[in-house]
Design brief:
With 313 residues, the protein is of the alpha+beta class. Helices cover 20% and strands 31% of the residues. It contains 7 helices and 18 strands. The strands form 4 sheets. It has a 7-stranded antiparallel beta sheet with strand order 2-1-18-17-7-9-8.
């Protein structure tokens, strides 16, 4: 069933898809997103990618790195806030516009318990609500956070594949020490499960942060969740507009920093769209064809008809 679909990834500064742009998956070229809250350079990698654009690489050197050989995807970003944000306020997670409870496969509750217990204890939400959601605080949900220096703008893209590691750059190293942030990623994630610790962190205006969110459990090509001792396929229950949406947003104000959408597109529908576009292009070319070319298309010896005044009487 999975071979009937292709994956399309878009990203933008809001939930509105008209503000989104295509993400070039598995390439080192970032997607730049600007909003009233921040500027972001975003990269998405998907292992064994089968999607759009058609010439996208199927993998990335990222997945050959010792820390990522088992991972299935990555959402990595450089973030430059335009205003300071409390550590307790920044959320990362998934949400949906419409109820999905009637489409959730058997075993969803078990899968969520496994995720909350063993993968992301800070995750909270309700997939059976009218507006389904699963959010975690960014400080305990992001796999990697690297604190950078104060800058005027995001740095220009450098050639090569960057694999972000936990830590700091420049005075960001001292910043972590001053705020007693644990040095390792796992220790930092556990540390920020405590509410009082969240208040110690501020995502500072004008300071650059590098982050990476990844795991080996979600297979986007199959739309399947593969947990230890438990596997859950979503494909048989799909219908209508099928997507998984990640959002980074501020809790109390609902201000969005960025949204990434992984959408499944039926190959048959895509073929119909291409055929319609070709027909529209052919019609446009025919209408715009210069008169000299139309005359040249006439049979040899045939003259172009030009009506005389008396022909119109």
């Amino acid at each position: 069933m999975a071979d009937q679909y292709l994956l399309r990834v878009t990203a933008g500064p809001s939930y509105d898809l008209t503000t989104h742009q295509a993400v070039f998956v598995n390439t080192p070229y970032p997607t730049h997103i600007s909003s009233s809250v921040c500027n972001t350079d975003l990269r998405v990698r998907v292992q064994n990618y089968r999607g759009l654009p058609h010439d996208s690489p199927s993998t990335s050197p990222y997945f050959s790195h010792a820390h990522h050989i088992h991972d299935q995807y990555s959402i990595a970003f450089n973030l430059l806030p335009k205003k300071s944000i409390s550590g307790s306020q920044l959320l990362l997670g998934n949400d949906f516009e419409q109820p999905i409870r009637d489409r959730l496969p058997p075993g969803t509750g078990t899968a969520l318990k496994i995720v909350e217990w063993g993968i992301d204890p800070g995750l909270d939400g309700d997939l059976y609500a009218d507006k389904p959601h699963l959010y975690g605080n960014a400080l305990s949900s992001l796999n990697i956070i690297r604190v950078g220096e104060k800058v005027e703008a995001l740095p220009k893209h450098e050639e090569g594949e960057e694999v972000v590691e936990e830590g700091g750059d420049g005075d960001g190293v001292e910043w972590r020490h001053e705020h007693t942030i644990p040095e390792t990623a796992n220790a930092r994630k556990k540390y920020f499960l405590t509410q009082s610790h969240l208040e110690q962190w501020t995502w500072e205006e004008g300071r650059i942060y590098k982050a990476d969110f990844f795991n080996p459990y979600l297979d986007f090509n199959q739309f399947a969740l593969k947990l230890p001792g438990f596997s859950l396929s979503i494909l048989p229950y799909l219908g209508g507009e099928d997507y998984l949406r990640y959002v980074l947003k501020i809790k109390d104000t609902d201000e969005v920093l960025f949204v990434v959408v992984f959408a499944l597109v039926k190959k048959a529908d895509l073929a119909d769209d291409v055929e319609e576009e070709d027909e529209e292009e052919d019609e446009k070319e025919h209408q715009e064809k210069p008169r000299e070319e139309k005359d040249a298309d006439r049979h040899e010896g045939e003259k172009s008809f030009e009506p005389r005044a008396d022909d119109l009487d």
